[in-house]
Amino acid sequence: MEWSGEASVMAQHRHGESAVILTVLTREAGLIRGLVPGGASARRAAMLQPGNRISLRWRARLEDQL
């Protein structure tokens, strides 16, 4: 399953060496959390700061994981 849309970043937490767990607020799905591989890199860290508006694509293996 795949879903895409606009979201506001609410929080981010490091997960391992290079990934982050991102909490975002969307108009369609509400508050959701997801893993962003490479999200702790210098290039992506500025984009994923709380308060930023981002365009995202959410992918899950099963529909109930969306």
TrEMBL record:
<dbReference type="InterPro" id="IPR012340">
    <property type="entry name" value="NA-bd_OB-fold"/>
</dbReference>
<dbReference type="Pfam" id="PF11967">
    <property type="entry name" value="RecO_N"/>
</dbReference>
<dbReference type="InterPro" id="IPR022572">
    <property type="entry name" value="DNA_rep/recomb_RecO_N"/>
</dbReference>
<feature type="domain" description="DNA replication/recombination mediator RecO N-terminal">
    <location>
        <begin position="1"/>
        <end position="66"/>
    </location>
</feature>
<protein>
    <submittedName>
        <fullName>DNA repair protein RecO</fullName>
    </submittedName>
</protein>
